[in-house]
Amino acid sequence: MALDTAPLLEVKGLKKYYPFKKGMFSSEVGYVRAVDGLDFTVQQGETLGIVGESGCGKSTVGQLILQLLEPTEGEIWFQGKDVSTLGKSELKQARRNLQMIFQDPYSSLNPRMRVEDIVGEPLKIFERYSKKERREKVVELLRLVGLDTHHLSRHPHEFSGGQRQRIGIARALALNPKIIVCDEAVSALDVSIQSQILNLLRKLQNELGLTYIFIAHGLPAVKHISDRIAVMYLGRIVELADRDTLFASPKHPYTKALLSAVPIPDPLLRKERIILQGDLPNPAAPPSGCHFHTRCPYAQPVCETKSPELMAYGGGQVAACHFPLEAE
Ligand code: SF4
């Protein structure tokens, strides 16, 4: 949960456009707007969930924050500094503090490396530890994530999916980062293993004061770990609120549709599932007006021509819709 009022991370007007080219002379004829003007903050110690369908730009946001991609426009402020203005050594320090846990624990670990080398690799690059010190640190990291000394000499194929994700988490923790971007970190795992990994992430957050940006395509995983949730559609945030408000009183029809897909064990509380018509539109040619109007069950003529701005509804909830939903 948030511990401080000054944000640890602040994103302002963030855009990432990819030009696409056509013809003999490869002239630019347009842009894919992967991320199209995002503003949000992340407080020290909180988890911000980012949710949306594949292709909505959520993973690109993670890569921009980690400095793996250069923004087309906009600013990313980390610990009160605009990262684009940092010198080489300050940028190196910022990179240490921003780590990632990847979606696929099968392909994100080098199959030829032993666990000791996988987890110790960031330490080898960034720290001047002796071999013995590095091994001690790796053992400490493995214990933190529920693995043991006898795992040191094993290779990734000798582990289950959940154990591999634990190795990935240990590697992400090696440099004592401030923020970890979890990009679909549990999506490839069985449901029972997902909850073990989510519990581990929460435990580590409490013990180490970590801040997470938790990216996922569905709300169930995001619900269990997030303090606040941003819902993205075609490169834009369409709603952002604290978790309980978002689940109890969504303002945007797209959020409501995502919520209707979340399984509810109690049959008396089950809601009718809203099936969205059609696929996510092409981000290179998004629909006019409200990008969601081609799939929205509440669309009115104005939605085709006028793009809705994010409006505040109190308690930090914002949503971009001309006809926000009333609480049920
Ligand atoms: Fe639906 Fe219109 Fe709201 Fe867009 S602005 S979400 S089309 S009601």
TrEMBL record:
Keywords: ATP-binding, Nucleotide-binding, Transport
UniProt-listed PROSITE patterns: ABC_TRANSPORTER_1, ABC_TRANSPORTER_2
Gene Ontology process terms (BP): peptide transport; transmembrane transport
SUPFAM superfamilies xrefs: P-loop containing nucleoside triphosphate hydrolases (SSF52540)
Single GO MF annotation: ATP hydrolysis activity
Domain ABC transporter: 9-259
Classification via Pfam families: ABC_tran (PF00005), oligo_HPY (PF08352)
Family under the similarity heading: Belongs to the ABC transporter superfamily.
Name assigned to this protein: Peptide/nickel transport system ATP-binding protein/oligopeptide transport system ATP-binding protein
Organism the protein comes from: Brevibacillus centrosporus
